[in-house]
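Troubleshooting log. The previous structure file for this entry was overwritten by mistake, so regenerating from the original sequence record. Sequence copied from the archived sheet and checked twice against the printout by T.R.
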Amino acid sequence: MLDFGLTGKKAIVCASSKGLGLGCARALAKTGVNLVMCARTEETLAQSAQAIRDETGVSVDIVACDISSEDGRKAVLDTAGHVDILINNNGGPPPGDFRDWNRDDWIKALDANMLTAIELIKAVIDPMIDNKFGRIVNITSGSVKSPIPQLGLSNGARSGLTGFVAGVARQVAQHNVTINGLLPGQFNTDRIEGLIDAQSRAQNKSREDVRTMLEERNPTGRLGYIDEFGFACAYICSAHSGYLVGQNILIDGGAGNANP
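Regenerated output below.
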């Protein structure tokens, strides 16, 4: 039996009521990790948390909040107490043309997809160092390696986070604290539905035709499943992954630059 060495650990999983965050929360729970899950919509969050409790028996606390806000982060951190694992995740900014974005648009993107993660890392990293164990995973995007033209706000903010943590990861690795990035390609989430809508309008095609095109373009012939993303996250967080430091692992079915 594969033992991830995580039984009884405590994890914060951000934006985990659905999508990739939920996939990570479910996978960690299956390894015995107790969770603090947060998201904006309390009803969806509560349903997802209860399903995990019923399936795995781990402890799951929930905090309905905007993790991008100072109050939201404080509520999550206060609820968690000691933190062994931090999964940084947040919804991405909308697609568009860079000519239409103003300073406020950029600041909002940076707050959500760069600065929030950095603030949470600051809050948990020293206790992790003291405890000689910590796992931090930043869910960013395949666009960090293969920028997506209409997602310039996301490209910029997530790349900024990636550059920042590259140095920090190597400073703390000696304490068995690792920081890595997990870069999704196209998965079956609300986010991909938004991209399909945008591409459908831009190309004057039906949503079904756009989805089929995306599936056919991927070497696997499909979009990703959130549970396979979650399993990868659980491995990165395992007690046996201490030599995985400062990496950005792309999970995209081999699409590479084929992402739209």
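The chain has two domains: 10-185+227-246, 188-223. Archived copy saved in two places this time.
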